[in-house]
Amino acid sequence: MREKKYTIVELYNKGVTLITGGKSYEAIAWFDKILEIDPKFKGAWGGKGMVLTTLKMHEGAIECYDKALEIDPKDKDVWKYKGCALADLERHEEAIKCYDKVLEIDPKDKRVWNYKGMALRDLEKHEEAIECYDKVLEIDPKDKDVWIGKGAAYIELEKHEEAIKCYNKALEIDPKFKGAWVAKGMVLRELKKYEEAIECYEMVVLDNIENGENLKLLEEKYKKDLKKEVGVRTKELDEAFKHQKLYLDQIVKLSQTKQKFMATMNHELRTPLNTIIGFCELLMEGAFGTLTNEQLEFMTDIKLSAEHQFMMVNSLLDAFKVESGRVTLNIQKFSLNSIIEQVKSYIKPECSKKSLTFEVKGLNNKKFMHADPIRFKEILFNLLSNAINFTIKGGITLIIKEKKDKWEFKVVDTGIGIAEKDFNIIFEDFERVQSDYVDSIPGCGLGLPIAKRLVNLHGGSISFTSEFGQGTTFTFTIPKKYNSSYYENI
């Protein structure tokens, strides 16, 4: 039976349908399918980020939102979603920066003023929070939830009378607002006005079954509005993509050409390079007679160049395999201590060549983890080799932390660091920082992108922090429980 081919519109609609049906992991798979066809499709990055947010996978969601913002840095909704994800991670300062981006684009977005106010409250900047709530109330003076938020901020400032005024405003808007009655009662208790506090609590107790009927009506209205919104969005997408069939066909042809090129590279380049390296080793060992010093020097140059070329071809093929979905993980339980010892046996001699120290922290007891051991080692080798390459003095530290639902690994170096202007190219294929020192190090700019793809394939995330001239820290996580449904082919 011939496999059905889907257009981007159909893939996106399917993803949206799966989200509304609560099938989050399947929705992500459909969005990933879109991004294989068109990595610049902003809606798929945004949709995937929203699903990851609902799954509490906020770091992965933020990566998706960043991809969408690279495509359209003025998409206020994506800035908003990113801010909410950062707030859930309690990274409130960064969240506020995102909210400010939204407000630069649309100063009348009352919801974002409210989000900013809540973030400022979490940072205990209550006066600034009140300013944000006032902005919301200038736009909509009947937003009862904002009156409650403003009242809470006044309580933190111990301005209880001001707080009561805010709760009274909320009750003018909705006399049956239980949250406002309870909050007002608590403030009155603080002021030792117990009789008035009791009156507030009695209003909550007298709330009747009518609320249940109202909830049912609201639920029906929500479903109707959602169905209407999905219909509008579907029509817009149909209009936007009806002229893209030729474009999609060209992408498919390019993909097929790329596969043929990779197959040719595998056979036509790796095989002769293996032969060159093998004959160099034979000649250098004197299998066909003793070489002069000059001949030995020439042969060494040839062998090193061939090995460098072989490494580049292997890296390129690995990147292609991961990107095209041809790498499958062999998830199994293994000894983390054993893997780390294998890594140390390779890394320590490389560090010694440059008089660098190497230390492993956080692995005091026997530990076991579930992952693909070969691909896991490849991630560590790529990150540690990168650290060695770009560290002139000092050392490298591998820090391991076991958390409730994941493993966290940090590769810390005291190397040359990365300038902030180069942050955006670190995980891009074939991109390298432009400097004389970096140019002197062999490489093709694929080690870090491959590590990122392999981490993501495990369902983890990777990030870095760096200070130019001081060093860099790469952090990646591997979930303790691998969810295969996330990456099943559709």
Q: Provide the helix percentage.
A: 55-70%
Instruction: Please give the radius of gyration in angstroms.
Output: 29 Å
User: Could you name the ranges where pLDDT drops below 50 across 5 or more consecutive residues?
Assistant: 486-490
Strand order of the largest sheet: 2-4-5-7-6
SS field, number of helical segments: 20
- Average pLDDT number: 81
- How many extended strands? 7
Order of helices and strands: HHHHHHHHHHHHHHHHEHEEHEEHHEE
Task: Provide structural commentary.
With 490 residues, the protein is an alpha+beta fold. It contains 20 helices and seven strands. It has helices spanning 8-20, 24-37, 42-54, 58-71, 76-88, 92-105, 110-122, 126-139, 144-156, 160-173, 178-190, 194-205, 210-241, 245-268, 270-284, 293-323, 336-353, 373-389, 436-439, 447-457, and strands at residues 332-335, 357-361, 368-371, 395-402, 406-413, 462-467, 471-479. Strands 2-4-5-7-6 form a five-stranded mixed beta sheet. The protein has a two-stranded antiparallel sheet with strand order 1-3. β4 (395-402) and β5 (406-413) form a beta hairpin. α4 runs antiparallel to α5, α5 (76-88) runs antiparallel to α6 and α15 runs antiparallel to α16. The protein is elongated, with a radius of gyration of 29 Å. The model is unreliable at 486-490 (pLDDT under 50).
